[in-house]
Amino acid sequence: MSKKPTVQPALHKVIMVGSGGVGKSALTLQFMYDEFVEDYEPTKADSYRKKILLDGEEVQIDILDTAGQEDYAAIRDNYFRSGEGFLCIFSITEDESFQATQEFREQILRVKNDDNIPFLLVGNKCDLEEKRKVSFQEAQDRANKWGVPYVETSAKTREHVDKVFYDLMREIRARKKEENKTSNGRGKDKNKKKKLKCCIL
Amino acid sequence: MDFDSPEVMKDFPGLYSSEKKKGADNDYNDESEKTTKKDMLIGKRKEKKDKKDKDKGYAALEGESSDEASPCKSKKSKTFKFTKSKDKEKEKQKEKHEVTKKSRPKKSEKPQKGRKGFGPSKQIVGGSSELADALPIFGVDLEEACKRGRCHDGIFIPLPIRECVDYIEAAGINFEGVYKISGPKNKVSQIKKLYNNRQVVHFSEYDVPTATSSLKMFLRDLPEPIFTNDLLIRFEEAGAILNYNTREKHLKTLVESLPSVNRLLLGWLVVHLHNISLKKHVNKMDKQALAQALNHTFHVSSRLLHALLLHQEALFPNLTITKYYPPLDSGSALPDDPVIIEKELSKLESLLSQIHWEMQNGHISKTREEHLWEVQRITTELKRKLKKFAKTESSQPDQAKSSQEKQEDNAKDELDNTKDELDNAEVQDQATVVISEEPEAPKLEQASDENKLEEEKEIHVEEKGDCSGILKDQQRSDSEEDEYTDSEITSTDSELLEECQYFDEKIVTMKIKNNLLKELIETLMMNINKEKMEIGEYQRQILNLKRGLPQRPPYKKCLKDPNSFHEVQTLLARENHMLQIKKLHLVRQVMEQTEQCIDLTAKLKYTFKDIKDQKIMQGKDITTKTP
Ligand SMILES: Nc1nc2c(ncn2[C@@H]2O[C@H](COP(=O)(O)OP(=O)(O)O)[C@@H](O)[C@H]2O)c(=O)[nH]1
Ligand SMILES: [Mg+2]
Prior knowledge:
The structure holds two protein chains of two kinds.
Chain A: E1 10-17, H1 24-33, E2 45-54, E3 57-66, H2 73-82, E4 85-91, H3 95-112, E5 119-124, H4 136-146, E6 150-152, H5 161-181, H6 184-200
Parallel strand pairs in A: 1-3, 1-4, 4-5, 5-6
Antiparallel strand pairs in A: 2-3
Chain B: H1 6-11, H2 37-56, H3 86-109, H4 129-134, H5 142-148, H6 159-172, H7 185-196, H8 208-221, H9 232-239, H10 244-257, H11 260-278, H12 280-283, H13 287-294, H14 302-310, H15 312-315, E1 320-321, H16 338-360, H17 366-393, H18 399-407, H19 411-419, E2 433-434, H20 446-462, E3 470-471, H21 474-478, H22 496-548, H23 562-608, H24 611-620
Helix pairs in contact in B: 2-3, 6-8, 7-8, 9-10, 9-14, 13-14, 16-17, 22-23
């Protein structure tokens, strides 16, 4: 007997983080609906689901597009907790947004309590090369330091848009397989940690 | 089985406190106490195990906890009998929690089976039983219950009440003995548990008595009666007034001084019970019978409850019972009409903020998180739809409006709807019942409308969004042959002209009354001030005397023996008490008569006045309030 296809396709939960205006929504909409919106409209929180073929396997992706602003920090934490993978976006045209990625990384690690959480550093708006403020090397160094991949994208030209989502999903999938392989003991341990955390909160 | 032995009462003081007086519906709370030997044993074993486990650090892996306030009983338990001792009872109480854990999953499974097309078809909210423990909906302060069991259409009534009422209005209105016949205890506590667990309840899988008993249980479990401890006695007093108009006036004042949450809930229930009574020929429950079936639930006399039902139109004019449609879930088809989308969006936002709030309070579970993503997804989808619509409609901006008009049944509704757009209840609420003081014709004079708004300002704020739907004219014509027939309002003719004249008269008499009442208040205030000054004067005199004179010899000296002293004292106290009561009665009579006088004077003055004059007057001081 070969593998039976599961009734319900695997579901991977991806969260977009980064300062306001870096292109989180633009990337999400480009990936979801192949569309690019020129005008900027701040997001509070939006969630999308899409069925895709990941290396021949049908999977579902849940994308949560969050707000960059601090106002929604409390809401964001509720989502971070349930995220399985993170795309940390900055705009290569804005150094501030690059600096902010450090803060986001820390927030995620704090909430997830897991250094190996699937995570990609994404430099967006790479179509605006002439306005570049963050060098490729600079960003690559930070990614190396964190032990995560660095990819440059353009939500406008769709360059590497699919790539960042697919790469992240592969990481999530690998991570889940690994978790399944390791005995239940580890899973229990993790559960316990979670519960303890809840109590503290 | 002797579960109702006094020992139970000792161990659980207050458990039966609200039930002591009643015979008919001593319901479900005792249910929680009936734990079986078997359960107890399990409980004991579990407790021991728990202690060991905790040391090992496995405590967190124990099964789901559950609502401590009403642990449910496993079905089997009925077959076991045992004689319990006081000690056992105590143990049981300790172990209640554990026992519940054991039996809970069984309970919650049941209603999930064979669900019929009522509400969301998917059990999305589940498992977060720690929420039921920490933030139950039953048995907590009313405002808190409204927050926890939130109706996301902006109507601040606890979800269990809302859904019970909806179901009873739909399925129970023709049920003989509705509200009189109690539902099975185990089912009622099952419903309570489902609500506390934030699970979906499908009353269609139960029956009318279960729904009515659940509603009763909710009200009885409230820590404070719906009339509030402060006003309860005054309500009773007002309900006992014999004169119809005076009684109505007093009740109205009291209803208006209730906290808005209580007022809305009371109105909702009174209007609902009134609706039930309209079908008394079928359901055999007239207002009297309903009052008797429910007065203990409300913690009041049946006389007061009956009075409220009789005066419901005056007390809660324009209050509509709107059916609650929960926010959309992933199973539901998304609406296309932008107006409906807006409404759905506001419900979803409300739901989202509630989930976030619960999570921020530390109630996080896998199902809760799933739910959050799902609700967020539907919200996003609807927002996209709305955006698309806005784009395509920018060329024909009128369509949104016309589609709204489609939903409206008459001009009056539209007026209300545009006033409180966002918070408005579902458009599907067309089928719901609307109660209004008079059968209103669409072309009411603006003046009378405004006047009403003025009068009902408070209630309007609370009940915004309640006014969509069909006006039910038969409300009035169908209404009971009340024992108090001297109702001043008797307009059943809906001829427009008469309507206008009627409102004219009403306004003018009210204006006159207004002035007279102001005069009355002035004179009363003057009297009060005079008396205050007198009191001050006397106090000063007493002080002066005390300072000047030596201490008064004690009374004891004048009496021969302490016994007679006591006798005299009690006699005097009794007499004083009776005089106090007499005084209260007289004061009330004086006030009633004064008010009647004012009524009559106003009517007299109206008949003498020229209508044109009045119209000018009415235009001038439309804003003056009736005290
Ligand atoms: N040129 C260019 N503009 C972009 C790109 N991504 C986003 N934008 C623009 O940047 C602005 C902010 O994008 P948005 O997705 O709303 O940012 P968010 O706040 O991170 O969601 C919008 O005006 C987008 O049109 C990109 O890759 N290239
Ligand atoms: Mg955005």
